[in-house]
Amino acid sequence: MHSAPSRPGSFQPSGPLRGTLKVPGDKSISHRSLMLSALAVGESKITGLLEGEDVLATAAAMRAMGAHIERTGEGHWTVNGVGVGGLLQPAGALDMGNSGTSTRLLMGLVASHRLTATFIGDASLSKRPMGRVIDPLSQMGAEFTASPGGMLPLMVRGLVPAVPICYRLPVASAQVKSAVLLAGLNIAGITEVIEPVPTRDHSERMLRGFGADLTVDVDADGVRHIRLMGEAELQPQQIDVPGDPSSAAFFIVAALITPGSEVTVTHVGMNPTRTGIYKMLEAMGADLTYSNAREVGGEPVADITARHSVLRGIDVPADVAPSMIDEFPVFFVAASMAQGRTTTSGLDELRVKESDRLALMATGLKAIGARVEEREDGLVIDGTGGEPLEGGATVTSALDHRIAMSFAVAGQHTYHPVTVDDVSPIATSFPTFESILHILQVQH
Ligand code: S3P
């Protein structure tokens, strides 16, 4: 749980960034690997698990509902599952810390089990909308008592047998899709999710990997129909979690904006539902090369090398947003140092992430000298053409790890240091971020 005391961080250029690094395991895949292993009958082994606070919140919750989960070494975990339908009543409230993914996916799991669970979280999570999962899960028969606005703390009373539904996603959200599918695991019949705009498909890939009967059909309009047959029986697996492309993006952008840099990040997940950031950076002229492409545990993986590049502003098409939804904060940093104008739109979802990312990035970037216009659904940024930003200001991270890391990256190419008021939230997804940045700074 994110309980570390608030801690400011100061970031300033120290010359080129150089070196080869591995980022921690993918956060989305780490959550899912613990959840599905906990629902399989028998022992699963996970390597490369992200040991950030968010994923540890999922592990604690699955333990509280009966799974045996043990850490056997760095990133190595063993899980003995209880079987679909076998989750137990937790003794106390499930503390989700800062983690929206843990909360929404676990609400799905609980919805079709005979138990009642109370979800609590930190100040950031307690402001995030849960109505988007309460709606479909209520249709399946679960009952909810939520705080005003459909927020945490909230209580879920699961139903057995629950009702299979066909649900068309009203918002492009992998968390909502996954909550419905996970609920469907313990419901006899076909649970269907209709997905007009594709979002990350780790749940679909991993459910199949665990032996669930899941099909994906794309209709003539390009809409995905995901059908899961319950009640499912999941077989234990060995899972190697690839490096998180969202975490890698911070160092890739840092290398691109910092003159003289060359950084290689190895073993990065290259699932096409996650790589929008790399496509957009390339469209801006980024020097990125990919090597050693391979497949790990049903997910494509590669090594990425980034060399300093003077980027050119672009219009980011709104339909690219879901495949880079978590990377916009650091993308805005790249845009603020590009040549010309970058426009983004269709990003309303950024306002309901760990913070209002459009507002915080606009305010913070302006404070360090960037030219930014905040619109309702995106930012318009006029870049410096490769020159450093002014820096010399303190920016607010508001319990948002990605805001903190984005400004740490911005501080690699400014005239004066950038201070982040609180870097402690970085531990939710990337506990080794600051030490890796330091290593890259000194390897000249
Ligand atoms: C995630 C889905 C995305 C993303 C989040 C992780 C997931 O959220 O922003 O960091 O693991 O399913 P939404 O479903 O709200 O878009």
What does this structure look like?
With 444 residues, this protein is α+β, with helices and mostly antiparallel strands. It folds into two domains: 9-25 and 242-442, UDP-n-acetylglucosamine1-carboxyvinyl-transferase, Chain; 27-240, Enolpyruvate transferase domain (UDP-n-acetylglucosamine1-carboxyvinyl-transferase, Chain). 28% of the residues lie in helices and 27% in strands. The protein has twelve helices and 22 strands. It has helices at 27-39, 53-64, 100-111, 131-139, 174-184, 202-209, 245-257, 276-283, 328-336, 357-367, 401-410, 433-442, and strands spanning 9-11, 18-22, 41-47, 68-73, 76-82, 94-95, 116-120, 143-147, 151-157, 166-168, 189-195, 213-218, 224-230, 238-240, 262-269, 287-296, 299-307, 341-343, 371-375, 378-382, 393-395, 418-420. A four-stranded mixed β-sheet has the order 2-15-17-16. The protein has a four-stranded mixed β-sheet with strand order 4-5-3-14, covered by helices on one side. Strand 12 (213-218) and strand 13 form a beta hairpin. The longest helix has 13 residues, at 27-39. It is globular and about 60 Å long. It starts with 8 loop residues before the first strand and ends with a helix. The model has no long low-confidence stretch (mean pLDDT 97). It binds shikimate-3-phosphate. The site of shikimate-3-phosphate has 10 residues, from helix 5. Its main location: cytoplasm. One of its GO terms (biological process) is amino acid biosynthetic process. GO terms for molecular function: 3-phosphoshikimate 1-carboxyvinyltransferase activity. Monomer. The active site is at 326 (proton acceptor).
